[in-house]
Write a structure and sequence with these properties.
Length: 144
Amino acid sequence: MRIAIGSDHAGFDLKEYLRAALAEEGYEIDDLGTHDRSSCDYPDFAAAVGRAVAEGRADRGILICGTGIGMAIAANKIPGVRAACCSEPVSARLTRQDNDSNVLTLGGRLIGPLMALEIARVWLTTPFAGGRHQRRVDKIRALE
């Protein structure tokens, strides 16, 4: 699975941790920045990762900012992106299972690296349930 990953300065350290840990687990990681702790604007990275997913250059995307909220708002502006901000594994499982989310956003100032990795693992391995949920996802797509 190819994962596009990005962060702003507030999420940089967590991005670096996840990038390395997920690569070690066999995921193909495309790091779209930022590449240091210098102040930068999260919408730029949300757009880059969101477009990579929407255009099929990545299977999924992970975005990290201070809270994960700004990244989710920005990424969800890209047609074809269903970004979900998660701070624990249950939401990560349900957003994949029920909503077929394709971008995960995390708060680098709110959750630690081990919790973030567990959230990412659950999110990456949970399949979409389809069935009645497909009808709902189709309605979300129609809004675009």
